[in-house]
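hey so i finally got around to running the thing on that chain from the lab meeting. sorry it took forever, my laptop kept dying and i had to restart like 3 times. anyway pasting the input first so we r on the same page abt which one it is
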Amino acid sequence: MTARALVAGLGLIGGAVGIALRRRGWHVDYFDPNVTLEEAQSAGAADARVDRIGGENLIVLATPADVAVELLPTIESAGVVTSVCSVMRPLRDVARGTFVAGHPLAGWHEGGLANAHEVKLEGASWFLDADDPRVEQLVRDCDAIPVRVGAAEHDAAVALTSHLPQVLSTALFAYLSEHAGIERFAGSGLRSFRLAASDGAMWHSVLAANRENLRPHADAIASLVRAIIEGDERDAFAKAQALWRALQE
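ok and heres what got predicted. didnt touch it at all, straight out
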């Protein structure tokens, strides 16, 4: 029997999930008023389009976080609903029925279905806040690795490892853009800040949903920046080098 899933939101991550599942022989329906069936099939991300969310045994919410929070309480399904948003706790708080908050640790700085092929799910950690064999099979069929984690722990951690790097990259480049002619002094280090090219449309709802976890770090980093500038960095360079090397292993 062919495995089936409904992907709600056929953008960057939803598209990547659809592509990965179809490669494994799944039948993928999708709900997204902004993506035509021709676009979905051309990208290899879905087989058919539906006009409502529900009915499927496995539903993947791949909308922006704020949209997912609005949709979750309205979904009626005898199966399981899971998500691929960058936050878990706001969704967990409003979910009803069988729900698994999820987050594949994969992405791309440009959004939309057209960039879904850039997302590398193979070997990626895919965080799940509950156990469900149907969702775990979906993760494995995307060639990712299911990792169990609590929703609150996840959101606090990715505030540091994912959301804060985006905020800092955007802030730096927004500040630099106010200095005319600075581009001719840009070297390879500055040009390596790929996150600065991220689309705000992808990030506004994520940052809003995880704002409470982000706020405490803003003042701490600002204080550390001032300390480094004043020569009172307290081994900041050594600590940064050690973590960088550990991440390369």
